[in-house]
Design a protein that fits this description.
This protein is elongated. The protein is of the alpha+beta class. The longest helix is centred in the C-terminal third of the chain and has 38 residues, at 194-231. 55% of the residues lie in helices and 12% in strands. The chain has two domains: 9-66, no CATH class; 80-190, no CATH class. Helix 4 (80-108) packs antiparallel against helix 7 (156-162). Helix 2 (38-43) links the parallel strand 1 and strand 2 (52-56). It has nine helices and six strands; from the N terminus they run H-E-H-E-H-H-E-H-E-E-H-H-H-E-H.
């Protein structure tokens, strides 16, 4: 069958999907009507972003012949880059949770400036770590919230990924996304989110605008009173 399209539309579709995957880096891709699995064959090389690659077709025989050839290899924690990125993301997530818990409790009670977090788990492992007693509570210092690394490490998912607190500290000290204190025992997070800063700036602008309007009204009233006084 002759077609006016060159290259054929199905090949143009393949290239469009490949370009889309390279640009947007989706984690899951499903090819409906994968036929000879040509598109799956092209996409299997993008293992750095695709975690689930699925092909669906009514021709079961065609799929069975190529199922092993195009079997997806999922990202493995044996890859050091993937492992470090996974651990850092988990640490940031748990640290943000501890930060939010502290902020919420601090709002409820202004007199409570320290909230203890999971000291019992750390106490069990402190002897094995061989370190001195560390601050086990979240606290505020200036415009930052300080989250003890031992509190983050005590979370099961983080502890399962890194094993020991010493190893976690070594990994995070080498990561540019993490901000730690000098001895690497505390994660430093901003006390105010960027969104909150924008809201505060908007409030300040609104206050300035309101003050300016009041000043203009006072000036107009003053001019009217002066004019009335002059006519007396």
């Amino acid at each position: 069958m002759n077609t006016p399209f060159s290259p054929p539309l199905y090949m143009q579709r393949y290239q469009f999907v490949v370009d889309y995957v390279q640009t947007n880096r989706p984690r899951k891709v499903i090819d409906l009507g994968c036929a000879e699995c040509c598109l799956l064959g092209k996409l299997k090389f993008h293992r750095d972003c695709i975690q689930l690659l699925v092909g669906v077709d009514i021709n079961a025989d065609s799929l069975l012949k190529r199922s092993k050839l195009y079997r997806v290899v999922y990202p493995s924690l044996c890859d050091n880059n993937i492992y470090q990125r996974t651990l850092v993301n988990e640490v940031l997530y748990e640290a943000q949770r501890l930060r939010q818990e502290w902020l919420q409790k601090n709002i409820d009670s202004n007199n409570n400036t320290h909230v203890h977090c999971y000291p019992s788990v750390e106490a069990e492992h402190r002897g094995a770590e061989g370190g001195a007693d560390e601050q086990l509570s979240v606290y505020q210092q200036g415009g930052t919230i300080c989250v003890p690394l031992s509190s983050v490490w005590s979370r099961p998912r983080v502890r399962g990924l890194c094993g020991t607190l010493h190893r976690l500290r070594e990994i995070l000290l080498d990561d540019s996304l993490m901000r730690l204190n000098a001895d690497g025992t505390v994660l430093i997070l901003p006390a105010v989110d960027d969104d909150d800063d924008e809201v505060e700036e908007e409030d300040k602008e609104e206050e300035v605008k309101t003050a300016s309007d009041v000043a203009e009204n006072v000036k107009e009233n003053w001019d009217e009173e002066l004019a009335a006084f002059g006519n007396v």
